[in-house]
Protocadherin-23
Amino acid sequence: ENFKPAQVLNSLKWPDNHLSTNRKLHFSFAKDDDDVHFEIDSLTGDIFLSKELDYETDSHFLLQVIIKELNSNPPQNNTVFLSIDVEDKNDHSPYFQDDFVVIGIEENVPVGTLVYTFHAKDGDGSFLNSKIQYSLEMNNRTENPFFIHPSYGTLTTAFPLDREITRSVIFTVSATDQAINVTDRRLDSLAVKIVILDINDNSPSFMSSPLSYVMEDVEMGFLVHHIIAKDPDEGRNGQVTYHILSGNENKSFILDKITGFLTTAQSLDREIQERYSLTVMALDDGSPALSATQVLTVIVLDVNDETPMFLKQFYKATVRENQDPGEFVIKVEAMDRDAGLNSLLHYEILPGAGYEKFKMNLGSGELTTTASLDRETQEVFSIKGSPPRSSTAQLYLTVLDENDHNPLFAKTQYQISITEDLEEGSVILDLYASDEDDGLNGEVMYSLIDDTFGAFAIDSVTGSIVTTKALDRETKSQYTFRAVASDCSTHLPRSTTVSVVVYVDDVNDNDPVFLQNPVRVFVPAETAVNETVATVRAEDADLGSNGAIVFNLMTAETVFQIDAKTGDIILREPLASKDFDTQLLVTASDQGISPRTATAMVIIFTEEQEEEISFSHSLYEASVPENSAAGGH
């Protein structure tokens, strides 16, 4: 196609057997094949190029040549078809439609992902001259993460991408044809920029310290800490907001979610809480969002804002009496909720009654005596102690007892009268002995010594004397024994003894008893009136009116009369006959409030009767087994 115009391309030759020296020929193109690219010499048949050829426009021409023999009559025409093939010349360079291409690709695509397909065109017609091969050249020495297929122009990822390491890649893509002659090969280049698009593949990371300090007396709104977290992702994927997940349940702090400023929302008090563990989250704005957490420790520093406080507002202690000075009494303790030097305490005793008898250790709070104490003189001391910042506590000190006193009864002897009809277990006397000592030394227990014949016992705690059996004045009318009051000291107990006399008073608990019953009396028929014919006798074991006896006849009687005091039976009328006999029922009654009575029979007759009492046998014999039970018949 690079053949120059006016040059002979070819020459039509007539075959040798047709040649004749005198033959006159005329050459021409058929009118239909009149082409501007070729001309033919009408005399010689030489074909000339009249216009440059372009293989890419026309690569083949078919020309019809008409040959006229002018010598013939009539003239003869011959037609020849001439086929012309235009050979391609590598006269076109490959070309891209764009000079610069910007391509975006997400950073998380897998290796081998198709990024872009380059299309370059070449105007040459033949295969090799228009066959394009692609290549890639980096503009700098950075690692090339891409691969271009030399034949297809497909650009794919050769390595994993990471926007946070490489945000973009710029390189040149060349398209080169494959002309046989290497020196004739032509090329075109295209600048390419690959922008690696961000994917939210990075979590925020904290840059700020996980430890912060703040004084406890800062005002509300004080900046405690600036929380900083970075996210290497781009745009919203790298925009971080801050949130408190836990540890702020009492709402002590406020966290600005945009700036990360942590400020106080209320007053702090180290003595209530000296450490806060806040779980803080940094959250990006990607979809899905990624986050990171950090445990932020906020340590509240001490300010001397606390007054010392005793562990007790009221202390009780005891100390033994009669001890040498320097005796340990008690150790009082106070605490100051401040820390460090702010919590160091000194102790002292405030002036007051009896305080000079004690000394307080300035540093330890131990209280000791400076003099010997006497419980019976002063048993209780009330002392106030104070740390330097005005907190006070009351110490109630009791002097412990030594067993230096005997129990004391109110009397040296007790006499009591009781009636003999008291029930068993009745209290007859409440003894009480006091002991000035304290505790077990002053606790009194009671007991009886001497023989009470089983009639009395004493309650060891209350001192009440009670009967332990039924009493009988007629058997024993007086008891004398001793009661003992002893303290309960575990070391050398002390005691006191007192005499107790119990008189048993009489009650009307015995009936009169006739000395003889029945009474038989022989009265001669000639006995004179007003003469005592018989006397009945009776006794009563009771005392006084309870034992004074009065006699009476149960039925009215005119012949006989009885003397109420002496029991003499007196004849009041003469006897009616010599064979007179009668029976009198006589009562003997005591003079108690509820009198008791006994009855006897008096038999009176005028003729003496002999009565003989005799056994039926003169000798009685019996045998008893040696182990027979008592009462056996």
Remarks:
- Helices lie at 127-130.
